[in-house]
Design a protein that fits this description.
By secondary structure, this protein is of the alpha/beta class. It is built from eight helices and six strands. Strand 2 and strand 3 form a beta hairpin.
Length: 234
C-alpha cells in the first residue's frame, strides 16, 4: 500500500475566506516502510499571513515572495499524490485548503485524485477519548521525539505524523529500514525440517526484571487499546 503523510501550512484558518496554502509536506510510505521519496514545496500565497499564523509557522511574506504560485506546482503535486492513501491529522482542514486552491484552477477535488483519506485525529480520539490529541500531545504520549519542532513546518510535521501513525496502529516500533531495505525474507527461502522429538529442551523462566518489562509492555498495549484487552479476562 502506498501512503502519503500530508501536511500544509497556511496564511490563516479560513480557506473560504481567502487564506492560502504556503507550504506542503508529503512523506511517502509503502508497505509501512518510509521510502525517502518525499515532496516539500513552498508556495507564494500573494498575500500576508495573519499574525497568529505567522507565529505558528514563521514563514514571512518576504521569504515566500520568490516561491512559485500554487498554479505552478499543482500538476507536480497531483502526480505525486495520485492513487495514494492520504494520511492527515485533522484532514478536513488540509483537504479544505487544497480543494479551495484546486477550484481556483478549475480542477476536481483532491478526493477524485487520491485513493482515500485517513484522518489520524479521528483515530486518536477513538483510542484516547477525552484526552488531548494534537500532534504534539500524541508525540508525548507515544514517545515520538518532536524536540526539533520549535515552529510548525509541513515536512517535519508529516514526518512526525508517520511515526505517530505507526505507533497508533502498533504495527512496528520503528520506521528504520534494514540494510537491504526489506523487512521480510524471500518467500523462496525455506528451512529444512528438523525432528525435535529426541531433544530435551530446557525451559528458561523469566527473571524478575523480564517479568516487570513484560507487564509494562502489556500495560502500554492496554492503554493504547483504550482498555479493550482480552488476554487477562479469563
Amino acid at each position: 500500500m502506498r501512503q502519503i503523510f500530508f501536511d500544509t501550512e497556511t496564511t490563516g484558518l479560513a480557506a473560504e475566506g481567502g487564506d492560502r496554502i504556503i507550504e506542503i509536506g508529503c512523506v511517502e510510505m509503502i508497505n509501512r516502510q518510509l521510502t525517502g521519496n518525499n515532496l516539500h514545496l513552498y508556495i507564494n500565497p500573494q498575500r500576508a499571513s495573519h499574525e497568529d499564523a505567522l507565529r505558528v509557522h514563521g514563514l514571512t511574506e518576504a521569504f515566500l515572495s520568490d516561491k512559485p504560485l500554487f498554479s505552478q506546482i499543482a500538476e507536480q503535486l497531483l502526480e505525486f499524490l495520485a492513487g495514494a492513501e492520504l494520511v492527515i491529522h485533522n484532514a478536513p482542514f488540509d483537504i479544505g485548503f487544497v480543494n479551495a486552491e484546486l477550484r481556483r484552477l478549475s480542477k476536481p477535488p483532491i478526493t477524485d485524485i487520491v485513493g482515500s483519506v485517513r484522518d489520524t485525529l479521528l483515530m486518536a480520539r477513538d483510542l484516547f477519548p477525552g484526552k488531548a490529541n494534537s500532534l504534539d500531545a500524541l508525540c508525548r504520549r507515544l514517545e515520538v521525539d518532536n524536540s526539533n519542532r520549535k515552529l510548525h513546518g509541513a515536512l517535519l510535521d508529516a514526518e512526525l505524523l508517520a511515526e505517530v501513525y505507526i505507533r497508533l496502529t502498533r504495527g512496528q516500533d520503528s520506521l528504520v529500514m534494514d540494510d537491504a531495505g526489506e523487512s521480510n525474507q524471500s518467500s523462496e527461502f525455506k528451512l529444512a525440517a528438523v525432528d525435535l522429538s529426541s531433544f530435551a529442551l530446557p525451559v528458561i523462566a523469566a527473571n524478575d526484571a523480564e517479568l516487570e518489562m513484560h507487564e509494562k509492555v502489556l500495560g502500554e498495549l492496554d492503554k493504547a487499546s483504550g482498555g479493550k484487552r482480552i488476554w487477562q479476562e479469563a
